């Protein structure tokens, strides 16, 4: 299947990011000749190397970022860690690991800037593991003060909620839990997510990725009410990220500058913007001033 390449010339955002703003969800892919993709992958992305991402962050105004390992690289975190080594302390990582990973391997990653592990439950992207496997890995993460990032479809939360509540770490939910935006914020799946955030204060949610959730396309006004609701109701539990280079996009490729310009629509005050872009990621990822 053919996926779109990332936007080659995003606009300069009109919205000026606050100092120390963090892109809390992005990826680096390959280049494949140096960092091959996993043989078991279910999609092959376009190469998106660290040099391009460094340039994008300068262009957009981000001084910090969190790299999230994606399924196309499997449990080989080499490309992500290579970028951390060249990031000057301004980047942190979220790894994907195998079921038999050892504490020593995670400790080595910690020294390189990794601060979390991602569990992907989206069946079209990965094969889901037994519950005990996730709990074992989460115990190792907890010993390092890490968190667990979880990615799932909205309809899967009901079955996953018990596991998420049992994880001994903070939990970060990717992409607003992927709500069906045609059903409004009162839909049961989205309200289940809100109840989880309300009852488990160490659960966080990323409010970006509008381009994946929209039914209308840019400027994603159908997604804004969901993100704004989360930012206003849970200001200390929200993060925002570009999701660059937007893997698996087929409908259109978003302009990352335009995505940044949407931030004031979901975080309309300077105080909310500071929480979303600076204070919350700093609390999770121990960035140095």
Automatic annotation (TrEMBL):
Domain Amidohydrolase-related: 22-287
CDD domains in the cross-refs: PDC_hydrolase
UniProt entry keywords in alphabetical sequence: Hydrolase
Tree of life domain: Bacteria
A single MF term (Gene Ontology): hydrolase activity
Pfam families for the chain: Amidohydro_2 (PF04909)
InterPro entries: Amidohydro-rel, Aro_Compnd_Degr_Hydrolases, GLI/LigI, Metal_Hydrolase
PANTHER family, per the entry: BARREL METAL-DEPENDENT HYDROLASE, PUTATIVE (AFU_ORTHOLOGUE AFUA_1G16240)-RELATED
Protein name as annotated: Amidohydrolase family protein
